Amino acid sequence: MRAVGFALTLLTGLLCGGCEDVISVKLDEGEPLLVVDAFLNNVRRVQTVRLTQSLPYLTTGEAPAVTGARVSVVDVQTGWEYFFREVEAGTYQRRPQRNDGFAEVGKEYELRIQLGQDQYRARSRVNPVPRIDTLVYDYEEKTPFQKAGYQAYFIAFDLEGQTDYYFIRSYRNGILRSRNIDFQVSVDAAYGEGADGLQFIEPLADFTPGDDPYRLGDSASVELASIDKHTYGFLSQLMDLSTNAGLFATPPANLPTNIESLFPDPQLKPAGWFAVSAVSAAGIRIEAK
Known about the structure:
Blueprint: E1 7-16, E2 19-26, E3 33-41, E4 47-53, E5 70-75, E6 81-88, E7 91-94, E8 108-115, E9 118-125, E10 132-140, E11 149-156, E12 165-172, E13 175-176, E14 184-187, H1 202-205, E15 219-227, H2 229-242, E16 260-261, E17 269-277, E18 279-285
Parallel strand pairs: 3-17
Antiparallel strand pairs: 1-2, 3-4, 4-7, 5-6, 5-8, 6-7, 8-9, 9-16, 10-11, 12-13, 12-14, 12-15, 15-18
């Protein structure tokens, strides 16, 4: 995420008596923000929180890492604090411990960040997630919308009795598919309320992008993560902004954040998101039938 604000020299050809004028447009650069990337889960693997500083809009290059922070996540119910160690500039990690009780379903967790004299907080509750029953795959011929190859699908049923929100992502040979089109969000088993307790519909259950199908020998895996309504809204808006281009693009808007500063005027105002999820995962190897 980058602060809205940039200095842009706009060269415009004006059809005014055959003349060309150079118009210089200068906009104020927004104040830099503390950008928090803290999507954690109950999978027994290294959990990561990333802290960066925003750049002016349209600026190229890597966002500066925010170093020297004290980062932890607290179990609100028990008060147990899980500490994240800075392993490289701006990257704070925690390795799972034996009998680790991190990210238990039904519990609420609080992210705590101390950066100099400034302190930041955010909370997230871990919601339940349904089990993935099985994975299936089929070879599909080339079409105008996809390449020839194996399309993989998961079979799972939405939890019954309440509105649930999910974040779906997939892996190929253990590597996360990280493009915007590779991620999906869901309400119940579809794209809106009304599918309570039903099987996930095919556009969601198909976790294979059309331009990059699986091949023989590949391992295919998918994760179904529980999220809350606010995280669903954040991810939906993020995905919309990342594909907002072309003739009918809308003006970019600032993303919401659930990170709060404990002080009214911190050196870096917060941005980004904190969420803790329960995850259901399954994997399969693509073999000839």
